[in-house]
UniProtKB/TrEMBL annotation:
<dbReference type="Pfam" id="PF00701">
    <property type="entry name" value="DHDPS"/>
</dbReference>
<comment type="subunit">
    <text>Homotetramer; dimer of dimers.</text>
</comment>
<keyword id="KW-0963">Cytoplasm</keyword>
<comment type="similarity">
    <text>Belongs to the DapA family.</text>
</comment>
<feature type="binding site">
    <location>
        <position position="45"/>
    </location>
    <ligand>
        <name>pyruvate</name>
    </ligand>
</feature>
<feature type="active site" description="Proton donor/acceptor">
    <location>
        <position position="133"/>
    </location>
</feature>
<keyword id="KW-0028">Amino-acid biosynthesis</keyword>
<feature type="active site" description="Schiff-base intermediate with substrate">
    <location>
        <position position="161"/>
    </location>
</feature>
<keyword id="KW-0220">Diaminopimelate biosynthesis</keyword>
<dbReference type="InterPro" id="IPR002220">
    <property type="entry name" value="DapA-like"/>
</dbReference>
<keyword id="KW-0457">Lysine biosynthesis</keyword>
<protein>
    <recommendedName>
        <fullName>4-hydroxy-tetrahydrodipicolinate synthase</fullName>
        <ecNumber>4.3.3.7</ecNumber>
    </recommendedName>
</protein>
<dbReference type="InterPro" id="IPR013785">
    <property type="entry name" value="Aldolase_TIM"/>
</dbReference>
<feature type="site" description="Part of a proton relay during catalysis">
    <location>
        <position position="44"/>
    </location>
</feature>
<keyword id="KW-0456">Lyase</keyword>
<comment type="function">
    <text>Catalyzes the condensation of (S)-aspartate-beta-semialdehyde [(S)-ASA] and pyruvate to 4-hydroxy-tetrahydrodipicolinate (HTPA).</text>
</comment>
<dbReference type="InterPro" id="IPR020625">
    <property type="entry name" value="Schiff_base-form_aldolases_AS"/>
</dbReference>
Length: 291
């Protein structure tokens, strides 16, 4: 079972929005050195919405090749078209990803039955471990615990990223499916509490810039060391907050640029962090000892 701190990796780009392969290699090595337990490539933080099929597949392939089996690689392969999600998931399997993360279909707002049929179709079409991803704040659709419980009966649906930040929801999901699938946090501020409830880790934005601290936080929580985990979480709270001062991954990419790891490149419609937000993010980095 994949567990621990799983970074929702940004996709490095130059100032024109072209993919920066050398910076991607540096980021992967940074995470391997700093103790990250797994890498999620081309999820929401990886700007999956503006990468084409070939770029999507190539980023995953390069991450898999660079990691070389040292930690798990989870590929973001969700889409609001079921057929596109199948193709992306097939591509991820073919280049060697260990599992796939599939966000709920966005914008078209399927019913709960539609969500069930969508995920079942993909799971039956592509033989690779698959992790559901519920983030209604970005997709405008909420996958309810009843639907998650139905999907937990499908063998290769092995987990869910629960990113509502609602700990009562997390508790219900863990109680209902925790014996059949891994439940991961997708909300950095509440990740410690979700893991202490029985979750298996955190798919994290904060881990982009503070991988060592997020690894230690998740390790402590998984061991049941609540005091250490909460102390680390308190120390990281400035980053948890300020890395969402504008839409993810804008602040995370700017922070990594400030740390000298990547260029500050994004693709439209995303733009660089607003000048008035930069001192706030810089201060959070300094408070966490990262500058």
């Amino acid at each position: 079972m994949i567990s621990g701190s799983l970074v929702a990796l940004v996709t490095p780009m130059d100032s024109r929005g072209n993919l920066d392969w050398e910076a991607l290699d540096r980021l992967v090595e940074f995470h391997l050195t700093e103790g990250t337990d797994g890498i999620v490539a081309v999820g929401t933080s990886g700007e999956s919405a503006t990468l084409d099929f070939d770029e999507h597949k190539e980023v995953i392939r390069r991450v898999v090749d660079r990691v070389a089996g040292r930690i798990p690689v989870i590929a973001g392969t969700g889409a609001n078209s079921t057929s596109e999600a199948v193709r992306l998931t097939e591509d991820a399997r073919d280049v060697g990803a260990d599992a796939c993360l599939l966000v709920t279909p966005y914008y078209n707002k399927p019913t709960q039955e539609g969500l069930y049929q969508h995920y079942r179709f993909i799971a039956e079409a592509v033989d690779i471990p698959q992790i559901l991803y519920n983030v209604p704040g970005r997709t405008a659709v909420d996958m309810l615990p009843d639907t998650v419980a139905r999907l937990a009966d499908i063998d290769n649906i092995v987990g869910i990223k629960e990113a509502t930040g609602d700990l009562q929801r997390a508790r219900e999901v863990i109680e209902r499916v925790g014996d059949r699938m891994a439940v991961y946090s997708g909300d950095d501020p509440t990740a410690v509490e979700l893991i202490l409830l029985g979750g298996k880790g955190n798919i994290s934005v904060t881990a982009n810039v503070a991988p060592r601290l997020m690894h230690e936080l998740c390790a402590a929580a998984l061991k049941g060391d609540a005091d250490t985990a909460r102390r680390l979480n308190d120390a990281l709270m400035p980053l948890h907050k300020q890395l969402f001062i504008e839409s993810n991954p804008i602040p995370a990419k700017w922070a990594l640029h400030e740390m000298g790891l990547i260029a500050d490149g994004l693709r439209l419609p995303l733009t660089s962090l607003s000048p008035d937000c930069r001192p706030v993010v810089r201060e959070a980095l300094q408070q966490c000892g990262l500058l």
